[in-house]
């Protein structure tokens, strides 16, 4: 069986773990069943380990009649019907630029988004420095314009004081307002969120954490 798996001569492996999974004991990781499942993963052979999924697969095969074409050297199989979908919008991403590009930057984040069908993303404001005024918004937009590979928008972070500054002008330049009511990685935690709702002129969409 190991030789067949190594040569990818199996198109599908259905191998169910023992009830209870061996209780997490170290010995449960050296059983023949575990080795089979591990080899299926290592050699990229499709693997089913849940009995309900196995039953659904069998029922699906019965309904379509005959055996579907399986190609174990590719990640997916598509039908002959092509459905055109609009690009997805991810409304909550953390692009750590500026301030923590070792975690993420505009190039890596938007590239990952495009790979998953996302053509627009909206970035949270808890960068270093956080996006709270005209200066920091300009800085963040400069970073985005240099590195972004898809459409984007920026959130502005609400603070206990910046509602009195130039926030009215910023409403036309940001995607939404983010209010942090809990600890974050920056200084954006608010003690009083009501200051942002006292005037009807606030035109921002609001996301609250």
TrEMBL record:
Domain MGS-like: 1-83
Annotated GO CC locations: cytoplasm
InterPro entries: Amidohydro-rel, DHOase/Allantoinase_Hydrolase, Dihydroorotase_CS, Metal_Hydrolase, MGS-like_dom, MGS-like_dom_sf
Keywords for the protein's UniProt record, in alphabetical order: Hydrolase, Metal-binding
Any one GO molecular-function label of the UniProt entry: metal ion binding
GO BP terms: purine nucleobase catabolic process
Protein name: MGS-like domain-containing protein
Upper classification of the organism: Eukaryota, Metazoa, Ecdysozoa, Arthropoda, Crustacea
